[in-house]
Structures are given as structure tokens and as C-alpha cells.
Design goal:
Blueprint lengths: L3 E9 L3 E6 L2 E6 L2 H4 L7 E11 L2 E6 L3 H10 L7 H10 L2 H9 L3 H4 L7 H11 L22 H11 L4 H14 L10 H13 L2
Parallel strand pairs: 3-5
Antiparallel strand pairs: 1-2, 1-4, 2-3, 4-5
Helix pairs in contact: 2-3, 7-8, 7-9, 8-9
Amino acid sequence: MIAFVRGEVADLTLTSAVLAVGGVGLELQCTPATLATLRVGQQATLPTSMVVREDSLTLFGFLDDDEKAVFELVQTASGVGPKLAQSVLAVLPPDALRTAVAHEDVKTLTKVPGIGQKGAQRIILDLKDRLGAPRGGARAAFAPAAADAWRAQVHEALVGLGWSAKDADRAVDAVAADLPADQPAPSDVAVLLRAALRTLSKA
């Protein structure tokens, strides 16, 4: 079991980060919110969860211990594997998930690609007494700047989460139309992705 990874960020993609540890590059699968806090060349420490399969070993990296704990707990719900658990956290941060489950908010849970009404009901049933109350933890702030390279990043992230390319195009266009003149930089991808997901949930 690898509880955490500490090292220099060697590379970032839309879905993963590579941390250099003792001369070895470890690839960690992360949500957009976690990736948005990392910078190539800087040191980082990420709590991790290892998923072992017959043909693979996959490390998932998290913003904090709370996100890691929720990721592992969500997988105990019927029909939820690691990829779907990561998609849940990409759409709903831990406190948002706690709130949705506590209020039996099926509509909010079905915003996650791959979770239908029955799946949402199962998650509520399996986790309602186990997730606990919202903690009100602060999330890292994202530095503002100007650029629109975020469009391709958000589009690819949406497709990776299960939306069609057509839906992703529509959501990105909607977010772009709502942006102020001082548009966020690519480091704001997590914020922009959530805005795109909200757009898709209203469709």
C-alpha cells in the first residue's frame, strides 16, 4: 500500500500527474481539481490509493486525505469501481457529495456520467450513514490570468468523463460565452470544468 507520494511534478496531462520519486516517475490518476493545484517543476505531496487488478496497478492521487477517504468509501457502494468513483469526485467534491447523499438528492448524483437514477439511489442507500456531514473544508484557490487554451483541456476532460464530443463542444461554448473579459488561465481548468458540467446538467 502506497499511502502518499512526495516528489517533483515531472509532467501533467488532463487526467494524470507524474511525480519523480527516487529516480522513478510515478503516474497518478487525478481529478481536474487536484491537477489544477500542481505545477511542473514544483514539489508536491499527494495522498494516494492503489488499485490492484490482475493485469494492472493503478495509483490514484488526491488533493487531500478527505478526498482520498471519500474515493475509497464510494467504491464500497454497489456497482461503483475506481474509475466511476473518480468521476464522482471530478463532478462533486467531498462536501458536495455528502450534501447530496444526506438530502437524498438523486438529481445531483445523476450529473455524474455513468450514474443513472437507480445507481444514484443505490449510492444513497449504501453511503447515507457512512459519509458523515459536510465539513466545510476550504479548497485551493486558482490563480487568475488571461488565455483560452482551457477550451481544449475542458473538452477533453468532458469526453474522458463520458460525455459525447458534441455535448462537450456545446458546454465549452456555453462557458466561453459566460466568461468575463479577464478570462481564467489554464490553471483554472477545474473551475471551468465544473461550470461546463453544470451546463450539461441543465440540458
